[in-house]
Amino acid sequence: MNIDTICVTGKPYYQACDNTGAISLPIYQSATFAHPELGKSTGYDYSRLKNPTRDYLEKLVASLDHAEFGFAFNCGLAAITALFDAVILNENLGTRFHVICSDDLYGGTERFLNTIGLKLGFDTTYVDTSNLENIKSARKENTKIIFVETPGNPLMKVTDIRTTAEFAHSIGALLIVDNTFLTPYLQQPLLLGADISVQSGTKFLCGHNDTLAGFVTTNDKKLAENLEIITKTTGSALPPFDSFLAVRGIKTLAVRMEKHCSNAKKIAAFLENHPKVQKVLFAGKGSMISFYVDSVATVEKVLKSVKVIHFAESLGGVDSLITYPKTQTHVDVPEKERNARGITDKLLRLSVGIENPDDLIKDLGEALG
Predict the structure, then answer these.
(1) Domain limits of the chain?
(2) The pLDDT of residue 240 is above 80
(3) pTM of the entire structure?
Protein backbone atom coordinates (compact mmCIF):
# COMPACT_ATOMS: atom_id res chain seq x y z
CA MET A 1 0.00 0.00 0.00
CA ASN A 2 1.29 3.48 -0.86
CA ILE A 3 2.50 5.72 1.95
CA ASP A 4 -0.16 8.39 1.43
CA THR A 5 -2.88 5.76 1.86
CA ILE A 6 -1.18 4.33 4.95
CA CYS A 7 -1.06 7.84 6.46
CA VAL A 8 -4.83 8.16 6.16
CA THR A 9 -6.05 4.64 6.93
CA GLY A 10 -3.30 2.90 8.90
CA LYS A 11 -4.21 -0.24 6.95
CA PRO A 12 -3.30 -3.03 6.58
CA TYR A 13 -0.97 -2.74 9.56
CA TYR A 14 -3.55 -2.13 12.24
CA GLN A 15 -6.59 -4.02 13.44
CA ALA A 16 -9.34 -1.72 14.72
CA CYS A 17 -9.01 -1.21 18.47
CA ASP A 18 -12.75 -0.90 19.02
CA ASN A 19 -15.91 -2.34 17.49
CA THR A 20 -17.93 0.84 16.99
CA GLY A 21 -16.85 1.50 13.42
CA ALA A 22 -15.45 4.90 14.40
CA ILE A 23 -13.52 6.46 11.50
CA SER A 24 -11.64 8.77 13.84
CA LEU A 25 -9.36 7.01 16.32
CA PRO A 26 -10.87 6.95 19.84
CA ILE A 27 -8.94 8.65 22.63
CA TYR A 28 -8.57 6.10 25.40
CA GLN A 29 -8.14 8.66 28.18
CA SER A 30 -7.78 6.03 30.87
CA ALA A 31 -4.88 5.56 33.25
CA THR A 32 -5.73 1.95 34.03
CA PHE A 33 -7.68 -0.98 32.56
CA ALA A 34 -9.77 -3.66 34.28
CA HIS A 35 -8.92 -7.36 34.05
CA PRO A 36 -11.64 -9.91 33.23
CA GLU A 37 -10.34 -12.24 35.92
CA LEU A 38 -7.13 -13.37 37.60
CA GLY A 39 -4.53 -14.29 35.00
CA LYS A 40 -6.37 -12.68 32.10
CA SER A 41 -5.88 -9.27 30.47
CA THR A 42 -7.41 -7.29 27.63
CA GLY A 43 -3.85 -6.59 26.52
CA TYR A 44 -3.84 -3.28 28.36
CA ASP A 45 -3.06 -2.85 32.05
CA TYR A 46 -1.75 0.68 32.70
CA SER A 47 -1.27 3.53 30.24
CA ARG A 48 2.36 4.14 31.18
CA LEU A 49 3.00 0.65 29.78
CA LYS A 50 0.56 0.53 26.89
CA ASN A 51 -2.45 2.52 25.75
CA PRO A 52 -4.72 1.71 22.77
CA THR A 53 -4.47 5.21 21.25
CA ARG A 54 -0.67 5.27 21.51
CA ASP A 55 -0.53 1.65 20.37
CA TYR A 56 -2.23 2.63 17.10
CA LEU A 57 0.13 5.57 16.61
CA GLU A 58 3.24 3.48 17.23
CA LYS A 59 2.11 0.85 14.73
CA LEU A 60 1.30 3.57 12.21
CA VAL A 61 4.68 5.32 12.46
CA ALA A 62 6.50 1.99 12.34
CA SER A 63 4.64 1.10 9.15
CA LEU A 64 5.60 4.42 7.55
CA ASP A 65 9.26 3.64 8.29
CA HIS A 66 9.01 -0.01 7.17
CA ALA A 67 9.91 -0.99 10.72
CA GLU A 68 8.74 -3.82 12.92
CA PHE A 69 8.83 -1.74 16.10
CA GLY A 70 7.79 1.83 16.85
CA PHE A 71 7.81 3.89 20.04
CA ALA A 72 6.17 7.25 20.76
CA PHE A 73 7.58 9.63 23.37
CA ASN A 74 6.51 12.97 24.79
CA CYS A 75 8.99 14.95 22.64
CA GLY A 76 11.91 14.45 20.26
CA LEU A 77 14.56 14.84 22.97
CA ALA A 78 12.72 12.32 25.14
CA ALA A 79 12.93 9.90 22.21
CA ILE A 80 16.68 10.49 21.83
CA THR A 81 17.26 10.13 25.58
CA ALA A 82 15.29 6.88 25.72
CA LEU A 83 17.10 5.61 22.64
CA PHE A 84 20.56 6.11 24.12
CA ASP A 85 19.41 4.60 27.41
CA ALA A 86 18.19 1.56 25.48
CA VAL A 87 21.43 1.28 23.52
CA ILE A 88 23.42 1.40 26.75
CA LEU A 89 21.38 -1.52 28.08
CA ASN A 90 22.86 -3.59 25.27
CA GLU A 91 25.47 -5.72 27.03
CA ASN A 92 27.76 -5.69 23.99
CA LEU A 93 28.68 -2.02 24.36
CA GLY A 94 30.79 -2.27 27.49
CA THR A 95 31.13 0.41 30.14
CA ARG A 96 32.30 3.30 27.93
CA PHE A 97 32.01 3.80 24.20
CA HIS A 98 32.50 6.37 21.44
CA VAL A 99 29.91 8.13 19.25
CA ILE A 100 30.59 9.79 15.90
CA CYS A 101 28.00 12.50 15.33
CA SER A 102 27.08 15.02 12.64
CA ASP A 103 28.40 18.50 13.36
CA ASP A 104 25.21 19.90 11.81
CA LEU A 105 22.39 18.89 14.13
CA TYR A 106 19.76 20.25 16.45
CA GLY A 107 21.33 22.11 19.37
CA GLY A 108 19.25 20.22 21.93
CA THR A 109 20.68 16.92 20.73
CA GLU A 110 24.19 18.29 21.06
CA ARG A 111 23.41 19.54 24.56
CA PHE A 112 22.22 16.05 25.51
CA LEU A 113 25.34 14.40 24.11
CA ASN A 114 27.71 16.87 25.78
CA THR A 115 26.11 16.76 29.23
CA ILE A 116 23.97 13.75 30.04
CA GLY A 117 25.81 11.66 27.45
CA LEU A 118 29.09 12.09 29.28
CA LYS A 119 27.45 10.98 32.52
CA LEU A 120 25.93 7.96 30.78
CA GLY A 121 29.39 6.82 29.73
CA PHE A 122 30.16 7.80 26.16
CA ASP A 123 32.32 10.33 24.35
CA THR A 124 31.25 12.13 21.17
CA THR A 125 33.27 13.36 18.20
CA TYR A 126 31.53 15.82 15.85
CA VAL A 127 32.44 15.72 12.17
CA ASP A 128 30.99 16.77 8.83
CA THR A 129 29.25 13.48 8.02
CA SER A 130 28.45 14.61 4.48
CA ASN A 131 31.98 13.36 3.72
CA LEU A 132 32.42 9.68 4.58
CA GLU A 133 36.17 10.12 4.93
CA ASN A 134 35.57 12.38 7.92
CA ILE A 135 33.61 9.59 9.58
CA LYS A 136 36.32 7.06 8.85
CA SER A 137 39.01 9.37 10.25
CA ALA A 138 37.04 9.87 13.48
CA ARG A 139 36.71 6.16 14.16
CA LYS A 140 38.10 4.79 17.42
CA GLU A 141 38.47 1.25 18.72
CA ASN A 142 35.37 1.72 20.87
CA THR A 143 33.17 3.49 18.29
CA LYS A 144 29.77 1.87 18.66
CA ILE A 145 27.34 4.48 17.31
CA ILE A 146 27.25 6.79 14.30
CA PHE A 147 24.52 9.41 14.69
CA VAL A 148 23.60 11.57 11.69
CA GLU A 149 20.97 14.18 11.05
CA THR A 150 20.31 14.57 7.35
CA PRO A 151 19.64 17.10 6.04
CA GLY A 152 21.48 18.78 8.88
CA ASN A 153 20.12 21.46 11.18
CA PRO A 154 20.57 24.32 10.35
CA LEU A 155 23.15 24.09 7.55
CA MET A 156 21.29 21.46 5.47
CA LYS A 157 24.33 19.18 5.02
CA VAL A 158 23.29 15.90 3.36
CA THR A 159 24.77 12.60 4.53
CA ASP A 160 24.71 9.50 2.33
CA ILE A 161 22.82 7.07 4.55
CA ARG A 162 23.57 3.94 2.53
CA THR A 163 27.37 4.32 2.43
CA THR A 164 27.45 5.47 6.06
CA ALA A 165 25.44 2.39 7.08
CA GLU A 166 27.84 0.13 5.22
CA PHE A 167 30.81 1.64 7.03
CA ALA A 168 29.06 1.53 10.42
CA HIS A 169 28.29 -2.13 10.04
CA SER A 170 31.81 -2.91 8.85
CA ILE A 171 33.16 -1.70 12.22
CA GLY A 172 30.35 -3.21 14.30
CA ALA A 173 28.59 0.09 14.98
CA LEU A 174 24.94 1.11 14.87
CA LEU A 175 23.74 3.84 12.52
CA ILE A 176 21.09 6.17 13.95
CA VAL A 177 19.45 8.67 11.59
CA ASP A 178 17.49 11.71 12.71
CA ASN A 179 14.89 11.98 9.95
CA THR A 180 12.99 14.99 11.31
CA PHE A 181 13.47 17.30 8.33
CA LEU A 182 12.32 14.90 5.60
CA THR A 183 9.99 12.46 7.42
CA PRO A 184 9.24 8.94 6.10
CA TYR A 185 7.38 10.55 3.21
CA LEU A 186 10.60 11.86 1.62
CA GLN A 187 13.31 9.60 3.11
CA GLN A 188 13.40 6.02 4.38
CA PRO A 189 16.50 5.57 6.59
CA LEU A 190 15.84 1.93 7.49
CA LEU A 191 15.44 0.91 3.85
CA LEU A 192 18.78 2.64 3.17
CA GLY A 193 20.53 0.55 5.82
CA ALA A 194 20.17 2.53 9.05
CA ASP A 195 19.53 0.52 12.21
CA ILE A 196 17.36 3.14 13.90
CA SER A 197 15.31 6.11 12.76
CA VAL A 198 14.47 8.86 15.24
CA GLN A 199 12.47 12.01 14.66
CA SER A 200 10.75 14.84 16.43
CA GLY A 201 7.10 14.17 15.70
CA THR A 202 6.38 17.67 16.99
CA LYS A 203 7.45 18.89 13.59
CA PHE A 204 6.10 17.56 10.27
CA LEU A 205 4.36 14.41 11.48
CA CYS A 206 2.04 16.29 13.85
CA GLY A 207 2.25 19.28 11.54
CA HIS A 208 0.19 21.93 13.32
CA ASN A 209 2.47 23.34 16.05
CA ASP A 210 0.08 22.06 18.72
CA THR A 211 1.65 18.82 19.96
CA LEU A 212 4.98 17.61 21.31
CA ALA A 213 6.01 14.10 20.26
CA GLY A 214 9.07 12.01 19.42
CA PHE A 215 9.44 8.67 17.64
CA VAL A 216 11.93 5.83 17.42
CA THR A 217 11.55 3.02 14.87
CA THR A 218 13.73 -0.03 14.34
CA ASN A 219 13.78 -3.66 13.22
CA ASP A 220 16.20 -4.59 16.05
CA LYS A 221 14.26 -6.84 18.43
CA LYS A 222 16.77 -6.54 21.27
CA LEU A 223 16.74 -2.77 21.06
CA ALA A 224 12.93 -2.79 21.01
CA GLU A 225 12.89 -4.89 24.18
CA ASN A 226 15.22 -2.38 25.81
CA LEU A 227 13.03 0.53 24.72
CA GLU A 228 10.04 -1.18 26.32
CA ILE A 229 12.00 -1.42 29.57
CA ILE A 230 13.00 2.25 29.37
CA THR A 231 9.44 3.37 28.64
CA LYS A 232 8.06 1.27 31.47
CA THR A 233 10.67 2.53 33.91
CA THR A 234 10.96 6.23 33.07
CA GLY A 235 7.38 6.98 32.01
CA SER A 236 8.36 9.00 28.95
CA ALA A 237 5.71 7.59 26.60
CA LEU A 238 3.31 9.87 24.74
CA PRO A 239 -0.08 10.43 26.48
CA PRO A 240 -3.34 9.37 24.78
CA PHE A 241 -4.62 12.80 23.74
CA ASP A 242 -1.27 13.80 22.21
CA SER A 243 -1.20 10.43 20.44
CA PHE A 244 -4.60 11.20 18.94
CA LEU A 245 -3.37 14.60 17.72
CA ALA A 246 -0.29 12.97 16.15
CA VAL A 247 -2.46 10.43 14.31
CA ARG A 248 -4.69 13.24 13.08
CA GLY A 249 -1.65 15.15 11.83
CA ILE A 250 -0.21 12.14 10.00
CA LYS A 251 -3.45 11.75 8.02
CA THR A 252 -2.50 14.86 6.02
CA LEU A 253 1.29 14.31 5.97
CA ALA A 254 1.46 13.46 2.27
CA VAL A 255 -0.50 16.45 1.00
CA ARG A 256 1.22 18.80 3.41
CA MET A 257 4.70 17.65 2.39
CA GLU A 258 3.89 18.14 -1.29
CA LYS A 259 2.78 21.71 -0.57
CA HIS A 260 5.75 22.35 1.74
CA CYS A 261 8.14 21.20 -0.99
CA SER A 262 6.62 23.20 -3.83
CA ASN A 263 6.49 26.35 -1.69
CA ALA A 264 10.08 25.92 -0.52
CA LYS A 265 11.44 25.61 -4.06
CA LYS A 266 9.81 28.90 -5.06
CA ILE A 267 11.02 30.70 -1.95
CA ALA A 268 14.56 29.34 -2.28
CA ALA A 269 14.67 30.67 -5.85
CA PHE A 270 13.44 34.07 -4.65
CA LEU A 271 16.06 34.25 -1.89
CA GLU A 272 18.83 33.21 -4.30
CA ASN A 273 18.17 36.37 -6.31
CA HIS A 274 17.70 38.84 -3.48
CA PRO A 275 20.53 41.39 -3.14
CA LYS A 276 20.55 41.25 0.67
CA VAL A 277 20.85 37.44 0.75
CA GLN A 278 24.44 36.26 0.54
CA LYS A 279 23.89 32.49 0.41
CA VAL A 280 20.97 30.05 0.47
CA LEU A 281 21.20 26.56 2.00
CA PHE A 282 18.52 24.21 0.65
CA ALA A 283 18.70 20.44 0.25
CA GLY A 284 16.47 20.47 -2.84
CA LYS A 285 13.56 18.78 -1.11
CA GLY A 286 11.64 19.31 2.07
CA SER A 287 10.61 22.72 3.39
CA MET A 288 13.67 23.80 5.37
CA ILE A 289 15.79 26.69 4.07
CA SER A 290 18.63 28.51 5.82
CA PHE A 291 20.14 31.69 4.43
CA TYR A 292 22.82 34.24 5.24
CA VAL A 293 21.97 37.93 4.96
CA ASP A 294 24.32 40.87 4.53
CA SER A 295 24.30 42.18 8.11
CA VAL A 296 23.01 41.76 11.65
CA ALA A 297 20.89 44.85 11.02
CA THR A 298 19.12 42.97 8.23
CA VAL A 299 18.56 40.01 10.59
CA GLU A 300 16.95 42.33 13.14
CA LYS A 301 14.82 44.02 10.48
CA VAL A 302 13.55 40.72 9.09
CA LEU A 303 12.66 39.30 12.50
CA LYS A 304 10.84 42.49 13.45
CA SER A 305 9.05 43.03 10.13
CA VAL A 306 7.66 39.65 9.01
CA LYS A 307 3.87 39.55 9.24
CA VAL A 308 2.68 36.36 7.54
CA ILE A 309 5.72 34.41 8.74
CA HIS A 310 6.12 34.02 12.51
CA PHE A 311 9.40 34.65 14.34
CA ALA A 312 9.37 31.50 16.45
CA GLU A 313 11.35 28.41 17.30
CA SER A 314 10.41 24.97 15.91
CA LEU A 315 9.52 23.92 12.38
CA GLY A 316 7.43 21.61 10.25
CA GLY A 317 3.96 23.01 10.88
CA VAL A 318 1.45 24.42 8.44
CA ASP A 319 2.49 27.93 9.55
CA SER A 320 5.75 29.35 8.22
CA LEU A 321 8.28 30.04 10.98
CA ILE A 322 11.57 31.92 10.88
CA THR A 323 14.21 31.13 13.50
CA TYR A 324 17.50 32.71 14.57
CA PRO A 325 19.75 29.72 15.38
CA LYS A 326 22.33 31.83 17.25
CA THR A 327 19.90 32.76 20.04
CA GLN A 328 17.34 29.97 19.74
CA THR A 329 18.04 26.42 18.56
CA HIS A 330 21.83 26.55 18.99
CA VAL A 331 22.25 28.96 21.88
CA ASP A 332 23.93 26.24 23.99
CA VAL A 333 26.67 25.64 21.42
CA PRO A 334 29.73 27.75 22.36
CA GLU A 335 30.03 30.86 20.18
CA LYS A 336 33.47 29.96 18.84
CA GLU A 337 32.22 26.51 17.81
CA ARG A 338 29.03 27.97 16.29
CA ASN A 339 30.97 30.40 14.16
CA ALA A 340 33.46 27.73 13.07
CA ARG A 341 30.60 25.61 11.78
CA GLY A 342 28.91 28.50 9.99
CA ILE A 343 26.13 29.19 12.49
CA THR A 344 26.88 32.91 12.50
CA ASP A 345 24.98 36.00 13.55
CA LYS A 346 23.86 36.50 9.94
CA LEU A 347 22.18 33.08 9.57
CA LEU A 348 18.40 32.67 9.53
CA ARG A 349 16.43 29.41 9.25
CA LEU A 350 13.05 29.27 7.56
CA SER A 351 10.46 26.54 7.89
CA VAL A 352 8.20 27.04 4.90
CA GLY A 353 4.54 26.40 5.62
CA ILE A 354 1.60 25.73 3.33
CA GLU A 355 0.38 29.31 2.83
CA ASN A 356 0.22 30.79 -0.66
CA PRO A 357 3.85 31.11 -1.79
CA ASP A 358 3.27 34.53 -3.33
CA ASP A 359 2.18 35.88 0.06
CA LEU A 360 5.27 34.38 1.71
CA ILE A 361 7.57 35.85 -0.93
CA LYS A 362 5.93 39.26 -0.58
CA ASP A 363 6.32 39.08 3.21
CA LEU A 364 10.01 38.17 2.94
CA GLY A 365 10.63 40.81 0.29
CA GLU A 366 9.12 43.57 2.38
CA ALA A 367 10.95 42.40 5.51
CA LEU A 368 14.31 42.23 3.74
CA GLY A 369 13.76 45.64 2.16
Answers:
(1) 3-250, 253-368
(2) yes
(3) 0.95
Strands 97-102 and 122-127: parallel
Checking if the pLDDT of 239 tops 70, the result is yes
Cβ-count burial of 15 within 10 angstroms (0-12 exposed, 13-18 middle, 19+ buried)? exposed
Q: What is the CATH number of domain 253-368?
A: 3.90.1150.10
Q: What's the mean per-residue pLDDT of the chain?
A: 94
* 311: pLDDT strictly greater than 60: yes
Q: What is the rounded distance in angstroms from the CA atom of residue 332 to the CA atom of residue 343?
A: 12
Distance CA 300, CA 310 (A): 14
* Mean pLDDT, rounded, for 184-198: 98
CATH architecture of 3-250: 3-Layer(aba) Sandwich (3.40)
Question: Is residue 288 within 8 Å of 151, Cβ to Cβ?
Answer: yes
Examine the pLDDT at 91 and tell me if it is beyond 80. Answer: no
**CA angle (183 as vertex; 115, 151 as ends), nearest 5:** 60
Is 324's pLDDT higher than 80? yes
